[in-house]
Specification:
transmembrane, 0% strand, mainly alpha, Four Helix Bundle (Hemerythrin (Met), subunit A), globular, 193 residues
Length: 193
Amino acid sequence: MTHSLTIFTWITIGCWILFCSYWLLLRNKTKENIKVRTAKERFMGALGYFLIFSSLYAPLLMTGGIGRRILPADVVLQTAGVVLCITGILICIWSRYLLGKNWSGGVTAKKDHELVMTGPYRFVRHPIYTGFITAVTGTTLVTGGLAAIIMTLIFALGLCIKINQEEILLSNLFPEAYTAYQQHTRKLIPFIW
């Protein structure tokens, strides 16, 4: 193995266990979807999580190739990574809590869908994605693997596509309210984009 399990690594693993536990706990506590997600969509979502987590922790499993560590195992870099991971997971959990029964794993409307604009939704329209990208980036700084860096970039681009799909859906569901909401909040990065 090219990477040992440091305290930094353990903290990120703990963060992701917390994230996954919270998501699993609430996965069926949502309103009914107007359009049911297919088995293929659910499988692709699970596969995506598997690829993300295996890429993030590839340096723990591989000695070279795409799993090799390319970022230095620097205390400052890893401390920053832990702070980003913790912050990102907390943003995800807070945002998911506020969405409540309106949350969906896919881009779909719920029966009696509500537009949430409180908490982190005051600053960005997609704070779960903001938090997730932040946590993934933080974990990448801790593990430092090439696979993690590549997956972080691919994942961020994929989320941008999903964000555009969600923006269309929410604009159709809440034509006036969502347009007004878009005018005073950013998509993903507070005060920037």
